[in-house]
Amino acid sequence: MNNFKLLLFTLFLLLLITFVQIKTDLFVLFEEGTGNFTTQINGENYPKTLTDVTGISYQLTQPPQRILSATLVTDHILADLIDPARLVAVSSYVDYPSLSNIVGFYDKSISRTQGEIESMLALQPDLVFVASYSNPETVRYLLRSGIAIVRLSEFKSFNDIFNNINIVASVTDTQQQAQDVIKQIQNRLQHIQKQVADKPKPRVLYYDMNGYSVGGDSLMDEAITISGGLNVTAGVLPDGENRISEELAISLQPDVIVMNQWVFNQNEGQASPAEILMAKTAWQNVPAIKHNRVYAVPGTWLRSVSQHRIKGVEAISKLLHPDITLAQESKNDL
Question: What is the 3-state secondary structure (H, E, C) of 271-282?
Fold first, then answer.
């Protein structure tokens, strides 16, 4: 009898462990993270099937006409793809000068969302754009609501930017507009790359006054490389954005330092991050300081994960190699 009870107890524990693991795995799918959570889209023409990483699918039978963009990246992408009349809401961040490259583009008649599920559902959207960093509770409710959801999750390279533009275009039936945007960016990048190919490559540090820099496998690393520089933290810091001590940053002895110039610094007459850093005693023997090569570039260009990232690359390339030219920007520039 005792052996039978032990067997039952063991089976109960195994079932409990299995249940907890399954529940944990499902919960993780909704967690904010850095994995590939991008929605899979099947179908060249409508109807198209949208499949979330959780396995939940939705069939989009026609081009959506009541689109809700709950992320700044899709606010930017959609601005170059669709008629704004198809939007019921964009993210509230689109109006922040320190974050947005398109302040004033969207009419105030288009609602702004901060991700509150009740107000989003009240707008009765037929398509909602979210991202891997969106509030997991909000995404969970949206997926259960029966509304078509597209989730973007990869933001580490220009190829990711192009892929995200194509995903947005695929579900909004704006493929030609997307190809025009992508082609323009590619032309501008190639124009820079051809000119810097044979030039000496200065050692560049991207540095944030809050003590952050960026390692390899990131948009900033790629931007520095395309611009004809060498990212001094690649291989020193882990991939992506990471904290960096002031001592380590100084020890890397960069030739050039690139920093964020946020809008509030400019508007309130405060010293730029570049001026603050150059005045620090501990940094005086760094080559970039000695040769006055510390530059503050608008953060909206340096931090964008949309098509507007090209502006950051062009700004860095001109700072590293002042003699190069930039591609002629089209009349409908990004």
Answer: CCHHHHHHCCHH
